[in-house]
Structure formats: C-alpha cells, structure tokens
From TrEMBL:
<protein>
    <recommendedName>
        <fullName>Choloylglycine hydrolase/NAAA C-terminal domain-containing protein</fullName>
    </recommendedName>
</protein>
<comment type="similarity">
    <text>Belongs to the peptidase C59 family.</text>
</comment>
<dbReference type="Pfam" id="PF02275">
    <property type="entry name" value="CBAH"/>
</dbReference>
<keyword id="KW-0378">Hydrolase</keyword>
<dbReference type="InterPro" id="IPR052193">
    <property type="entry name" value="Peptidase_C59"/>
</dbReference>
<dbReference type="InterPro" id="IPR029055">
    <property type="entry name" value="Ntn_hydrolases_N"/>
</dbReference>
<dbReference type="InterPro" id="IPR029132">
    <property type="entry name" value="CBAH/NAAA_C"/>
</dbReference>
<feature type="domain" description="Choloylglycine hydrolase/NAAA C-terminal">
    <location>
        <begin position="10"/>
        <end position="329"/>
    </location>
</feature>
C-alpha cells in the first residue's frame, strides 16, 4: 500500500517559440515508487470515469488519441498530450482538494480525479472546450487502495496549441477555473494564492545588480546572478512557483519547438529533487520525494517527451505516427537503469 509522503513537489512551466510552438513541461515527484510508464490511448476506445462512490461514473468513447504517463499500471494518464494539441496534467493538491458530494441523481456525470486527464484529453481539443465541459460534470472518487486508501487530491493544468492555459481546482465541492497567463503551476495552496504571492518577489531580476559607490568606494557583486539574490530556493510549492515564474519568463528567444523542448528540460533540471533533499517521517520511517519523471509536450508538433529518475535520456512518442487502427491502451516501460556512453580515447 502506498503511504502518503510528506510532500509532493510537482512543478509545471510553459514556453513559447518564435515558430508558434507551445511547450508545456512538468516534473513529477513522489516519495514512493509510482512505476511511471508511457501510456498511449487510441481513438475509438470505450472509456469510463473510474471508481466513484454514490453515483455511476461517466462513460464515453475517445475522440482523440493521447500520449502521456501513468502510475501504478493504471489505465489512466496523469499527464498527457492529445492529437489536437491539448495538454493536461494532474498535480497534487493536498489539504485543499474538496470534491463534490454525489448521488444517484448524478449518474453518468461523475469522473474520478484519477480519470479526469483521460476525460479531458480524449474528448476535447481546446482550453475553451474544457472550460465549458467542467460545468457539466462532477469530480468525486472512491478511496484507492494503491493511493494509501484515500481519494487522490489533485488539481489540473490545461493548455492548448494557441498558448491558452487554465488551472482547474476542486474547491468547496465545485470545479473552480483560473486563467493561467504565466503557464506555471505547482501544488497547494490554491492557484490564486500563488499568483498573489508573486507580488512579494517582484524585485527579482535576471540582470545583475549594478555597482554601488559608498564614500567613494565601489562595491560590485561577487558574480553572476546577483539580481536573483533572495529568490526562495527550497522545495515548497510557493517557492517553486516563484522560481518557475522567474526561469520561464527570463528565457532568451527560442526559434523552434525543438529548442523550447530542450530549454524546458534545462529549466526543470532546477527542480530536480535528489533522494534525501526533501524528506519527512511517514509511519516512523524517513521517506523522501524524488523526481520520478520529467516531461515536455510540444503542442504544435504533437510530440511527447519524458525522462525518468533512472535514465536522463529523453524518450519520445510522436502522435502523428501512432497506429490509428489500434483499439487498446498501450503501456511502455521506461528504463530502469541509466546507460552511460564511454567516449574514452583508447588505442585501437
């Protein structure tokens, strides 16, 4: 059984390129192994909203093919990209997620939090379509044994190839939608709190602080990065939100989506958590978050990229090339061990 770790430190950003590409990237952290795999969900597949209590889950047929990542071998994507250029990611939202109370009157209109990404990606093509659809469903779930006997607490970021982005949060039993103009998301508390907190750090600047003269003595900064002195460096969600805004907003112009994908991975390296750096006590045992996966979705080229803790090599699925006639969910294992290239110049 999955014990609930002390922190879940997922971080999401968005970059745009001069060729019109939009790239959404994120890290995925957890304190216990999630056996993260790539998942492909084809068109024309009957799907449902997962396990819910008090009502019958929604059912539908997939309109769009999806590439993404799952956890614990489930048939649900927790993050992904569809063939229309829509991208959705679930982010942990502990202590703040408040799902709907449902009854038989809600039969056929309920989706569990584990299957919300599936629903949005297989049914819709744009942010506006998702925004309208959330008013017609309720999100409620059942306790999941594999998730520590709880209903997993999530909120979601939704982005499309136009660059539009929203955050959807279950608060007070309702789905609250926030515009996300910066394309950034982390975890608790609510998204509007994070956007207000940015005001505490508007002094941050990627440009170095100029020299200062005091009584004819000139003082210069000791090195590069003085404009970011005071930027929070810990792994809490508020601190990561601030850093994600700073790093994603300060990038140099990017020519292509490919450039934006590579830059996304470089930025998200700043949020990579090595084992032991963010830990807590769970059931009397020390447990540490690690970055189990990092992904990037190119919403224009329809390519989905991933690295994992065991292998920093970038893996990719191209939605333009998947078999359109497949009618089953495909799961693809990620490497369990890093391969190192030996470039030693040796005598032949």
């Amino acid at each position: 059984m999955l014990a609930t770790p002390s922190a879940q430190a997922c971080t999401g950003i968005t970059l745009k390129a001069e060729d019109g590409s939009v790239v959404r990237g994120r890290t995925g952290e957890f304190g216990t192994p999630l056996d993260i795999r790539l998942i492909v969900i084809p068109k024309g597949l009957p799907l449902d909203g997962g396990a819910v209590n008090g009502a019958r889950a929604k059912t539908w047929t997939s309109k769009h093919a999806v590439a993404g990542v799952n956890a614990l071998g489930g048939s649900y994507a927790l993050d992904g990209l569809n063939d229309a250029g829509l991208s959705v990611g679930a982010f942990y939202f502990p202590d703040y997620a408040e799902y709907s109370e449902v009854s038989g009157a809600d039969d056929g209109n309920v989706v569990s939090p584990l299957y919300f990404v599936n629903y949005a990606l297989t049914q819709f093509a744009t942010v506006d379509e998702v925004r309208k659809a959330v008013g017609d469903i309720k999100v409620a779930g059942a306790k999941e044994k594999e998730w520590g006997g709880m209903v997993p607490p999530f909120h979601w970021v939704v982005s499309d190839r136009s660059g539009a982005s929203i955050v959807i949060e279950p608060v007070g039993g309702e789905l609250v939608v926030h515009d996300n103009p910066l394309g950034v998301i982390t975890n608790s508390p609510t998204f509007d709190w994070h956007m207000t907190n940015i005001r505490n750090f508007i002094y941050l600047n990627p440009l170095n602080v100029p020299p200062v003269k005091l009584n004819k003595v000139e003082f210069k900064s000791l090195g590069q990065g003085s404009g970011l002195a005071g930027m929070p460096g810990d792994f809490t969600p508020p601190s990561r939100f601030v850093r994600a805004v700073v790093f994603s907003q300060s990038v140099f112009p990017l020519a292509t989506g490919h450039d934006a994908v590579l830059q996304t991975f470089h930025i998200l390296n700043q949020f990579d958590i090595p084992r032991g750096a963010a830990a807590g006590m769970v059931g009397g045992k020390r447990e540490a978050d690690i970055t189990q996966a990092t992904v990037a979705a190119d919403l224009k080229s329809l390519k989905y990229y991933v690295t994992n803790y065991s292998s920093r090599r970038i893996k990719m699925i191209d939605l333009n090339r998947i078999d359109p006639d497949r009618r089953e969910i495909i799961q693809i294992d990620l490497p369990k061990r890093e391969t190192i290239d030996d470039l030693t110049p040796i005598k032949e």
